[in-house]
Amino acid sequence: MITRRQFFNASAAAMLGAALVSKGQAASLPEAPIQSKSVTQPPLVPPNGRPYQPVVTLNGWTLPWRTKNGWKEFHLIAEPVKREIAPGMMANLWGYNGQSPGPTIECVEGDKVRIFVTNKLPEHTTIHWHGVLLPNGMDGVGGLNQPHIAAGKTYVYEFVMKNSGTFMYHPHADEMVQMAMGMMGFIVVHPKNPNQYQVDRDFVFLINAFDIDPGSYTPRVNTMLDFNLWCWNSRVFPGIDPLVVRKDDRVRIRMGNLTMTNHPIHIHGHNFSVTCTDGGWVQKSAQWPETTVDMPIGALRAIEFVADAPGDWAFHCHKSHHVMNAMGHGVPTMIGVDHRGVAEKINKLLPEYMVMGERGMAEMGEMEMPLPDNTLPMMSGQGPFGPLEMGGMFTVVKIREGLARDDYTDPGWYKHPKGSVAYEWKGDLPAS
Ligand SMILES: [Cu+2]
Question: What is this structure's pTM?
Answer without folding.
Answer: 0.89
